[in-house]
TrEMBL record:
The lineage of its organism: Eukaryota, Metazoa, Chordata, Craniata, Vertebrata. The keyword Isomerase does not apply. Residues 19-54, 86-121, 122-157 form the EF-hand domain. PROSITE patterns: EF_HAND_1, EF_HAND_2, SOLCAR. Gene3D superfamilies: EF-hand, Mitochondrial carrier domain. This is Mitochondrial adenyl nucleotide antiporter SLC25A24. It catalyses: Mg(2+)(out) + phosphate(in) + ATP(out) = Mg(2+)(in) + phosphate(out) + ATP(in); dADP(out) + phosphate(in) + H(+)(out) = dADP(in) + phosphate(out) + H(+)(in); dAMP(out) + phosphate(in) = dAMP(in) + phosphate(out); ADP(out) + phosphate(in) + H(+)(out) = ADP(in) + phosphate(out) + H(+)(in).
Length: 477
């Protein structure tokens, strides 16, 4: 990342305290493009970009916030030198915390050990990738000079900031939003990055769900109406929906599906933070098991809160043209004819489905990411957003395979009252009825359109998410 600094501006010979002003002055002159003795945010941005060290607007602003002592919006040489000296002290502490045997060098085994203490498990090969990205002399160890030069302009202040690229998710919603939430740092919370990232994910989710809504409605129709006696395939299902209600009917129920994104996301992230606090001691990093439990409980809490909207979405999707004039009309008719309890029909299988979904999703995601890092990563330990999206799509698919029968039973319970001549069965009764009349394949009716929407949903989410992050000024990780 900072090869240029190592080889030219910050030569190895210039590492003594007495020579630091000369090193800092050389670098300051490179950044002071108009030679007026001060560096403003524009010059810092342009200078670092020309040196091959683009940090992003938020990181550069953080350097200014910390270094600009007199708050005039510019860094003079004294302020610049003080910032770098103070930053070096913090990086020295981070270096010493990694250098377990105090030999002045960081080795792969020490990185593995240090990250384990932070609740992150990586292999020796992955640790070597971290070393390779910092190692300037090819020794596969990192000394203080290499470490200092690599993190010279990175405004992180501790080990937690240094290993941020090991975040679990991308913040992208592909329509079956039960995945374990991401974590936000204190800096992100204070700067407002967290709500920008959630908003970007929410807009991406809304566009993605709307784009794939016809497949989602087809899935629901096949789940409710599919049987051995009344087989509904993909082509026949679309034809039937268009014939009954026109092209617009393909998006029936999508409004509710989009509306519930905001409250579901908000409750899930709030609950996740609360469960993390309950399961970990203050200052302790959350491990994989605690993360899974916290994520599953947060998903259950969010689902409990928005579940009535899930029922409304299903009723609207299955309903015939003219049966409901809208969301509120649907809710009013359910209360009138079935009572408030109808809003939680299918809640038990829905809750049970969260555990296998979240568990398999997290396990497969980490397995796929580790496999890619061990076998395909060459120059970086950051897999990149496309690899993470691929891992996320595959892990979500595996999670859906495990939990789909419960999702199908949930949907049928939600819609039972709308299907004439159908007895009102509980979860166990429905399982028995489906298996006896349709066999095991009956538990997976509608899974084909469900899988068909994964790739377009991921692609659309990614494009919208990246554009929204750019528009909202979300820092790239």
């Amino acid at each position: 990342m900072l090869r240029w600094l190592r080889g030219f501006v910050l030569p190895a010979a210039a590492c003594q305290d007495a020579e630091r002003p000369t090193r800092y002055e050389t670098l300051f002159q490179q950044l002071d493009r108009n030679r007026d003795g001060v560096v403003d945010i524009g010059e810092l941005h342009e200078g670092l970009r020309n040196l091959g060290i683009p940090l992003g607007q938020d990181a550069e602003e953080k350097i200014f916030t910390t270094g600009d002592i007199n708050k005039d919006g510019k860094l003079d040489f004294e302020e610049f030198m003080k910032y770098l000296k103070d930053h070096e002290k913090k990086m020295k502490l981070a270096f010493k915390s990694l250098d377990k045997n105090n030999d002045g060098k960081i080795e792969a085994s020490e990185i593995v050990q240090s990250l384990q203490m932070l609740g992150l498990t990586i292999s020796e090969q992955q640790a070597e990738l971290i070393l390779r990205s910092i190692d300037a002399d090819g020794t596969m160890t990192v000394d203080w000079n290499e470490w200092r030069d690599y993190f010279l302009f990175n405004p992180v202040t501790d080990i937690e900031g240094i290993i941020r690229f090991w975040k679990h998710s991308t913040g992208i919603d592909i329509g079956d939003s039960l995945a374990i939430p991401d974590e936000f740092t204190e800096d992100e919370k204070k700067s407002g990055q967290w709500w920008r990232q959630l908003l970007a994910g929410g807009v991406a989710g809304a566009v993605s769900r709307t784009s794939t809504a016809p497949l989602d409605r087809l899935k629901v129709m096949m789940q409710v109406h599919g049987s051995k006696s009344d087989k509904m395939n993909i082509y026949g299902g679309f034809r039937q929906m268009v014939k009954e209600g026109g092209i617009r009917s393909l998006w029936r129920g999508n409004g509710t599906n989009v509306i519930k994104i905001a409250p579901e996301t908000a409750v899930k992230f709030w609950a996740y933070e609360q469960y993390k606090k309950l399961l970990t001691e203050e200052g302790q990093k959350i491990g994989t098991f605690e993360r899974f439990i916290s994520g599953s409980m947060a998903g259950a809490t969010a689902q409990t809160f928005i579940y009535p909207m899930e029922v409304l979405k299903t009723r609207l999707a299955v309903g015939k043209t003219g049966q409901y004039s809208g969301l509120f009309d649907c809710a009013k008719k359910i209360v009138k004819h079935e009572g408030m309890g109808a809003f939680y029909k299918g809640y038990v299988p829905n809750l049970l489905g969260i555990i296998p979904y979240a568990g398999i999703d997290l396990a497969v995601y980490e397995l796929l990411k580790s496999y890619w890092l061990d076998n395909f990563a060459k120059d970086s330990v950051n897999p990149g957003v496309m690899v993470l999206l691929g891992c996320g799509a595959l892990s979500s698919t595996c999670g859906q395979l495990a939990s789909y029968p419960l999702a199908l039973v949930r949907t049928r319970m939600q819609a039972q009252a709308m299907v004439e001549g159908t007895p009102q069965l509980n979860m166990v009764g429905l399982f028995r009825r489906i298996i006896s009349k349709e066999g095991i394949p009956g538990l997976y009716r509608g899974i084909t359109p469900n899988f068909m929407k994964v790739l377009p949903a991921v692609g659309i989410s990614y494009v919208v998410y990246e554009n929204m992050k750019q528009t909202l000024g979300v820092t790239q990780k």
